[in-house]
């Protein structure tokens, strides 16, 4: 009898083994809801076979909904497959709290463009106990959303932590580029407070100090940093280490013949003055005449490349620019000195760029509703369009824009209508009629105007501003570009423009700090200062072009302004701001 019982037990065990073995094959065999399914699911998840992992883990978790390890793996497997619906379903079906679950929730918030929620979720996660798999996920989602929220210092900290988990050199380089771009968006005051903060490790401190000296943009301030941090990843961004050649051959294409001769000469003087001041590199400048009507442009273009120039600066005039656009692309870097449709760097004295800066300044000053007053010509229309587009992009509202005939001297009729004085007069008259009383009334400017943008050159501005004041608009701030400027010593012109705020390049401001760093007196420049400064700053780009292409928010403190390079290859000049006050010009805070 014992023998029969033993045989029965053996058969039962054997059948159980057969069922267990059959659960791993194909067909309709039933898979066991036990640790075997969990082990198999976790193994497939570790192998990144996410689809198969979800099958095993789903069956296991349905029977063991309190198992944190299985739940996290299942949740993340669906996340890796991009099955957002399944992820949300699981999140709603479980109350399990874990750092890994919160990271996935933060990633979902980021994907749905709710970065404020993502930052809030990750803020309270204790990352110390996260595995090497989850650490980079945590820091990366924080970095991405902190950047969106413009918390650049915190984004840098997160990116520095991510780097420890990167292996591919290309990824590391792109990662460093992100760090640099965020660093250069941090204010100097915030950098100063962060430097020396004991919460940051040595690598973070090196990045902060590199940003503080602006990656050696002046070619001098980086020396001390490099001596201390030569093995730091930020060292590759320093200007001193990004000059491919200590001396470069540069072809300069300018219209020395014909009506633009004086313009070309002024730019040339700026280039030569910068070359003389450059005692370290002494780049070789080769000047080519593009002709009075661009007739020599093609020859100059080819000659520059045949003479093995390392870079081309120019052309300057529109005819030559148009000619270049029809030529085969250059095989060396080109910095155009006027606007172009070609895919080259552009460094210009663009009036439209100044109008855009005026729009930004007005928004930053709290002026959201504006009038635009401009001359009725092509230049006025270009300025109006550039200003309006940027102003609206930044959240402003154009109440109205009005064009005036430049040759006209009296703008009263148009101004009265634009400023709402006619409507004010009519309202007062109607009120008197309604009340049948002889009331005294005063015309008032419409109340929905915060400021006025005046697109004007000196003669037009000198007529317009006094008439604005005469027509009760004296208390409305007026903003303009540098085109209203007519010299420091033109007292009558300056008094006519009392209160006007306008953009101005540093060379025109003649600041004492500028005089201290220049090897010459700007007062002795006997040519167009703007064009001189264009040439001077164009020379600074020779050694810095490669550096600025990598550090695309790097700044050159130039004579034309704070020069930065946009992602589109266009250089932007950050101008100073000033105000006419009792015949003098006073600088405004940035």
The number of helical segments is: 25
Through-space gap between termini: 102 Å
Helix content range: 40-55%
Mean pLDDT: 85
Query: What is the total tally of β strands?
Result: 15
- Which radius of gyration do the C-alpha atoms yield? 34 Å
Largest sheet: 7 strands, mixed
User: Outline, from the CA principal axes?
Assistant: globular
Stretches where pLDDT falls below 50 for ≥5 residues? 1-32
Strand order of the largest sheet: 7-6-8-9-10-14-15
Proportion of beta-strand residues: 5-15%
Decide which structural class fits the backbone.
Answer: alpha/beta
Describe this protein's structure:
This protein is of the alpha/beta class and about 600 residues long. The chain contains 25 helices and 15 strands. The strands form 3 sheets. Strands 7-6-8-9-10-14-15 form a 7-stranded mixed sheet, with helices on both faces. A 5-stranded parallel sheet has the order 2-1-3-4-5, with helices on both faces. α11 (about 190-195) runs antiparallel to α12 (about 200-210) and α14 packs across α25 (about 530-550). The longest helix is centred in the last third of the chain and has 22 residues, at about 530-550. It is globular and about 90 Å long. The termini are far apart.
Tell me briefly what this model is.
This protein is of the alpha/beta class.
List keywords for this structure.
590 residues; alpha/beta; globular; seven-stranded mixed beta sheet; disordered N terminus; 11% strand; five-stranded parallel beta sheet; 25 helices
Q: Would you spell out the secondary-structure blueprint of this structure?
A:
Layout: H1 2-22, H2 35-46, H3 50-63, H4 68-80, H5 84-93, H6 99-111, H7 115-123, H8 134-148, H9 152-163, H10 169-183, H11 188-194, H12 202-212, H13 222-229, E1 249-254, H14 261-277, E2 284-289, H15 297-306, E3 311-313, H16 318-325, E4 334-336, E5 345-346, H17 351-364, E6 369-375, H18 378-393, E7 397-404, H19 412-418, H20 421-435, E8 451-454, H21 458-470, E9 478-480, H22 491-496, E10 501-504, H23 506-509, H24 512-517, H25 529-550, E11 556-557, E12 562-565, E13 571-574, E14 576-581, E15 584-587
Helix pairs in contact: 2-3, 2-4, 3-4, 4-5, 6-7, 6-8, 7-8, 8-9, 9-10, 11-12, 14-25, 17-18
